[in-house]
Write a structure and sequence with these properties.
Layout (H helix, E strand, L loop, with lengths): L2 H24 L19 H16 L5 E5 L5 H6 L5 E6 L2 H11 L5 E5 L11 E7 L8 H14 E13 L4 H11 L4 E3 H13 L10 H8 L2 E7 L7 H5 E8 L12 E3 L5 H9 L5 E7 L4 H12 L5 E3 H7 L10 H10 L2 E6 L7 E8 L26
Parallel strand pairs: 1-2, 1-4, 2-3, 4-5, 9-10
Antiparallel strand pairs: 5-8, 6-11, 7-8, 10-13, 12-13
This protein binds S-adenosylmethionine.
S-adenosylmethionine binds next to helix 1 and helix 3.
């Protein structure tokens, strides 16, 4: 994609966010204005947004930063959570309205600076313990911009610093999300061929950058870093928790649990309680592969069924999804596993699936024995690891 097209997309997002944030100014407590589930079309509930924000802030605080650069900081939701804990905070955004609000709300705090600028700006300050790109890279115009922006973020870190990339939209699970979106629009009974066409239309209209998990370990390895990738920390069955993941680009030498460095066992239907009890007895890390995610199983299974139908077969997407609910029975929710693990002195890291799958791998390790899982940097063999968002 050429520089002009990239610049046009960035400008379009700036205009969209200026408008969103200006209208949000009128409503009290409307910081989450514009935060809507694409599945239901409804605003997220206060409990869902609070879980998302608290979880994000906690994940970043667990990196122990004293200085933070946040790129695409919006109206400062994450700023407000982190500011009491850090001595220096620089926030940037392409929306002048967002920057004006952050300056108004937080600019009086010593050590803060808020400025208009995009993630590919050559003049980013540096020397930060953590650089945050939270819920922003899906607005990037394409893979080239993504790479440059991440390289700038890495350069802005102090030696030993971490780049935290939150809310990455999963490419392998995108089609399953599209099926849920379609069900939310209730197209009624139609043919399987028509449903497949509607999904293809959604894909062709895609305006967001959607990324395969494999992109990050490969990028990290190229830059002498290690990727630590996890499912989002929440428990609600929201689009955010099901179809997005978080990435930390960490310095080499961080004590991470490397794949293959400890026992790995396939999931055999054990409950969360059983998995935790078994891991607690081990005294070392264990990876359980292929744990069934009960909330992802219905859309992924329904998608498989849809693909297997004759084009003229009659189908109702809502009914197809409902019918696939049983596919999730007996599964283990990542949130449930993490909570039980924590109550039993274990850390639990749930990893995003590399392929379209309703299963995830869970690493269970004695609390404090490591600071996260290291993802393996597999050879990429020229595969595309992102989509190319459509110009609006
Ligand atoms: C969904 S909001 C997230 C705001 C904030 N990071 C948070 O987590 O609350 C996305 C923000 O990214 C900004 N943004 C979009 N594209 C950007 C880019 N290329 N460079 C910097 N900021 C960008 C938007 O203006 C918007 O404020």
């Amino acid at each position: 994609m050429g520089a002009d097209s990239e610049a046009r997309i960035v400008e379009q997002w700036a205009a969209i966010y200026d408008a969103v944030y200006e209208s949000a100014e009128d409503a009290s407590g409307a910081d989450f204005a514009g935060w809507r589930s694409s599945i239901t079309g409804e605003n997220y509930s206060p409990a869902e947004t609070a879980e998302w924000l608290d979880g994000t802030v906690d994940e970043i605080l667990s990196l122990g930063p004293d200085s933070v650069l946040e790129i695409g900081a919006g109206t400062g939701l994450v700023v407000a959570g982190l500011l009491p804990h850090v001595g220096r905070y620089v926030g940037t955004d392409i929306s002048a309205t967002a920057v004006a609000r952050m300056t108004r709300d937080h600019g009086h705090h010593p050590g803060t600076e808020f400025r208009v600028g995009d993630a590919d700006a050559p003049d980013l300050p540096d020397g930060f313990d953590v650089v945050v790109l939270n819920s922003v890279i899906h607005h990037f115009p394409g893979p080239g911009y993504l790479r440059r922006a991440l390289e700038r973020a890495v350069k802005a870190c102090t030696v030993g610093g971490t780049v935290f990339v939150g809310d990455v939209h999963s490419l392998p699970l995108r089609e399953a999300l599209r099926l849920c979106v379609l069900a939310g629009r209730s197209p009624g009974e139609t043919t399987a061929g028509r449903v497949r066409e509607l999904l293809a239309e959604q894909a062709a209209q895609e305006r967001e950058l959607v990324i395969e998990p494999a992109f990050f370990p490969a990028f990290a390895a190229e830059h002498g870093l290690v990727a630590d990738m996890r499912l989002k920390p929440g428990v609600c069955a929201t689009e955010m928790n099901l179809f997005r993941y978080d990435v930390r680009l960490r310095p080499a030498g961080t004590p991470l649990i490397a794949p293959g460095s400890h026992p790995t066992v396939p999931w055999d239907g054990r409950t969360a309680a059983r998995l935790v009890a078994d891991a607690a007895g081990k005294g070392e890390a264990v990876t359980v592969t292929g744990v069934l995610h009960p909330d992802l199983a219905p859309p992924v299974t329904a998608l498989g069924e849809l693909r297997g139908l004759d084009a003229i077969a009659r189908v109702d997407v809502g009914a197809l999804l409902d019918g696939a609910r049983a596919a999730g029975e007996g599964g283990v929710r990542p949130g449930e596993l993490r909570a039980l693990a924590a109550a039993n002195g274990l850390a639990c890291y749930c990893l995003p699936a590399a392929r379209e799958s309703a299963r995830y791998d869970a690493v269970l390790a004695p609390e404090g024995s490591a600071s996260g899982p290291a993802a393996e940097a597999a050879p990429l063999s020229g595969r595309e690891l992102t989509n190319v968002p459509r110009l609006q």
